[in-house]
Amino acid sequence: MASPREQGGATAHAGAHDVDVVVVGAGLAGLRTASALRAGGATVCVLEARDRVGGRTWSEAIDGAMLDRGGQWMGPSQDRVAALAQQLSVETFPTFCDGRKVLELGGRRSEYERDIPSINPLALVQMQAALTLLDRQRKKVPVDAPLDAPDALRLDAMTVETFRDRYVKLGSVAGLMDCAIRTIFGAEPGELSALYFLMYLNAGGGLLSLAEIRGGAQQERFVDGAQALSLGLAARLRHDSALDLRLRAPVHRITQDRDGVTVTHAAGEVRGRYAVLAIAPSLAGRIEYEPALSAARDQLTRRMPMGATVKVIVTYARAFWRERGFSGEAISTRGPLTLVFDNTSHDGQTPCLLGFIVGRAARRWSERPERERRGDVLDALDRCFGPDARAPVAYVEQDWSTEPFSGGCPVGIMTPGTLSNAPDVLRSPQGRIHFAGTETATVWTGYMEGALESGERAAAEVLTRL
Q1: Where are any strands of DSSP class E within 261-351?
Q2: Is the CA virtual torsion 326, 332, 335, 337 positive or negative?
Q3: Is there a cis peptide before residue 291, judged by omega within 30 degrees of 0?
Q4: For 362-374, what is each residue's pLDDT tens digit?
Q5: pLDDT (0 to 100) of residue 17
Q6: How far apart are CA 19 and CA 16, in angstroms?
Q7: Cα dihedral across residues 443, 447, 451, 456: positive or negative
Q8: Does domain 60-70+93-98+217-222+308-402 have CATH number 3.40.50.1480?
Q9: What's the rounded Cα separation, in Å, for the pair 5 and 13?
């Protein structure tokens, strides 16, 4: 298989190319858009700012194994991802989750084996009631028309923190819910619109579906890393003379007229009949448009910041936590790691733990000295699984907020008032410009499945206009 930097497309070069569609972004959404457009007979140019394809998926050889700096899991109802993996002969394997789990809550460490953490009976009852309420409430919010939900405007004006506090009175239950929310969105509960939160849960089948391993979004991993999907798509497109994939080509300006679009990038410009922006809304907001896009679209891009996530990958000579009967999973309100997973390679040859630093803590992370950061992470893993955690083979941090062509991870979030102040513009074309990207998906928003769905939708929209 090609390495992550062997990109399966033409290298950037000067000169304009007249095509039917210019696709901006070569992550899963952009590559799926390009593939579907080519299947429909359109000529395509894909412009990617980075020197690689894959977007927020990025796999790299670490301590002898292909491990993921970005998105990495596949869940049981993510049919597009599963089908693409099968088409590209990309192998998957189950995420390891056998054994005892660790909970750090309110200064107390405990261990548990079931899916629900070991909390006192009253807290357990309240947790189950809260999950039942969330499941009932999220089903009332149509993903493709969230403002049609009952009390939509009130929910959109409310933060998730306020929404949670109405129904959750125990600090232990609130702490557990906040750990899940921070990791899923890379944001604090006080930063998210409650309406957006419920819409997002509905797109992925509920909070438990998003948070769990078995039966949830973290059920399977990819043997060669999740970026193998983008590399495989790019490799298929490489030999297509009607498609041009250009790397190191960040887009600065898009001009529309009655006949088409001119897309200006770092190495020149491309003229097309239509454009598809397959990038996060906040990144699309950095592009200059002539004429300007609608005020509602401008508001949307300003009110959808990226979540803040740091992934910490730590490899070891042996899987000492498994030897002690632990699954490698941990939940902590103490920090700096909010969640920890076993991230060992499929063949077991590279034992690995993966930790997430998210939300407010992630935004402050890069300001601290590297030695201090590493020490705090290893302290946290020691508390969870024992002193062997202090002797890693490899230690890698991936702070997505420092990536200029991502701006954060895992997803662009909606702050209170976003949906009600910028209705119907997330997926709506602006003249000859269409929009893809996982943020625009109506299934599994924020995930690879959503990226693929969004690309299929955007391509279908454009093909009806060609």
Answers
A1: 261-265, 268-277, 288-290, 309-315, 326-332, 339-342
A2: positive
A3: yes
A4: 998 988 999 999 9
A5: 52
A6: 9
A7: negative
A8: no
A9: 17
